[in-house]
């Protein structure tokens, strides 16, 4: 099981591999992080990765810094991911 912590919101949930991205997981929990395109191109959903690792499901011309994550195209890697949402 992979644990996802939305640090600013104080919410911890189990990752469901059927969910497309961290953005979708956040929205399923009633959170409303900023986003615009859901394709990783606009960078609106970029947030700080506090702990753990993610995989991005898209390739980017300019990939995010190691301590940043694009919620719309990121999936958490086990065992735990903490994002600043």
In short:
With about 80 residues, the chain is mainly beta. It contains one helix and seven strands.
Q: Would you give an account of this structure?
A:
This protein has 1 helix and 7 strands. The chain is mainly beta and about 80 residues long. The chain has one domain (about 5-85): Beta-grasp domain (Ubiquitin-like (UB roll), Roll), CATH 3.10.20. The strands form 2 sheets. The protein has a 5-stranded mixed sheet with strand order 2-1-7-3-5, with no helix packed on it. Strand 1 (about 5) and strand 2 (about 10-15) form a beta hairpin. The relative contact order is 0.32. The model has no long low-confidence stretch (mean pLDDT about 95).
Blueprint of the fold:
Layout: E1 3-6, E2 11-14, H1 22-28, E3 46-51, E4 54-56, E5 68-70, E6 74-76, E7 80-83
Parallel strand pairs: 1-7
Antiparallel strand pairs: 1-2, 3-5, 3-7, 4-6
What is the fourth-level CATH superfamily?
Beta-grasp domain
**N-to-C series of helices and strands:** EEHEEEEE
Q: Roughly what is the average pLDDT, rounded to an integer?
A: 93
Query: What structural class is derived from the secondary structure elements?
Result: mainly beta
| Count of DSSP strands | 7
Distance between the termini: 21 Å
* Helical percentage: under 10%
- Output the CATH class name: Alpha Beta
Structure keywords:
mainly beta, two-stranded antiparallel sheet, five-stranded mixed β-sheet, Ubiquitin-like (UB roll), 85 residues, globular
């Amino acid at each position: 099981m992979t644990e996802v912590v939305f640090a600013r919101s104080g919410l911890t949930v189990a990752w469901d591999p059927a969910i497309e991205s961290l953005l979708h997981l956040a929205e399923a929990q009633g959170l409303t992080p900023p986003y615009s395109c859901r394709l990783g191109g606009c960078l609106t959903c970029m947030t700080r990765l506090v702990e753990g690792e993610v995989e991005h499901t898209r390739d980017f011309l300019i990939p995010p810094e190691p301590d940043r994550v694009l919620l719309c195209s990121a999936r958490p890697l086990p065992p735990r991911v903490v994002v600043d949402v």
